Amino acid sequence: MRLPAELAAKDLNHVQVHNYRCTKLEKGTFRLGSLVEFQDKSSYAWRHWGCTTPKIISNLKVQYFKPSELDGYENLRAEDQAKIVKGWQDGHVDPKDVPLTARKEDAANVLSQINRAFCFT
Q1: What is the pLDDT of residues 74-101, one digit of tens each?
Q2: What is the CA radius of gyration of the chain?
Q3: Please, are residues 2 and 62 in contact by the beta-carbon 8 Å criterion?
Q4: Is the pLDDT of residue 17 over 70?
Q5: Greater confidence, 90 or 106?
Q6: Count of beta carbons in the 10 Å neighbourhood of residue 50
């Protein structure tokens, strides 16, 4: 049985993301969804494409022979399809696609700047 996953650039506003460090998904954001079942209900847990971990890509590669088999692939813009293909080949997303709020080093720098600005250090 395949792990249900969907790729999308949804027209949904402010969808909560799976990564607690990250921002909400804005309308039209390129994202990956994983089907989650909880209390006899099904829903997708969404994340920015840039928040997709190497482990997730590895798990998808076990379930799908090629990225074009993922639900929603054919509905994506050509540049988003290219990102998936590259991530599939490299085993990780391009670091440029990781949202600033999800980058550990950037988050630490922001906190450091806030602390300096308010003299918390």
Answers
A1: 888 999 999 999 999 999 999 898 887 7
A2: 16
A3: no
A4: no
A5: 90
A6: 23
Scored b (16 or more CB within 10 A) or e, 81-102 reads bebbeebbeeebbeeebbbebb
> In sequence order, what DSSP letters do the residues of 43-60 get, joined into one string?
EEEEEEGGG--HHHHHHH
Distances (CA, A) of 90 to 75, 95, 107: 23, 11, 25
Site of tokens 């308010």: 118
Check if the beta carbon of residue 80 is closer than 8 Å to that of residue 69.
no
C-alpha span between 121 and 112 (Å, rounded): 9
What the block records as the tokens of 88 is 């599939």
Of all residues in the chain, what percent carry a pLDDT higher than 70? Answer: 65
The H or E element containing residue 100 is: none
Provide φ and ψ at 64, rounded to 5°: -125, 140
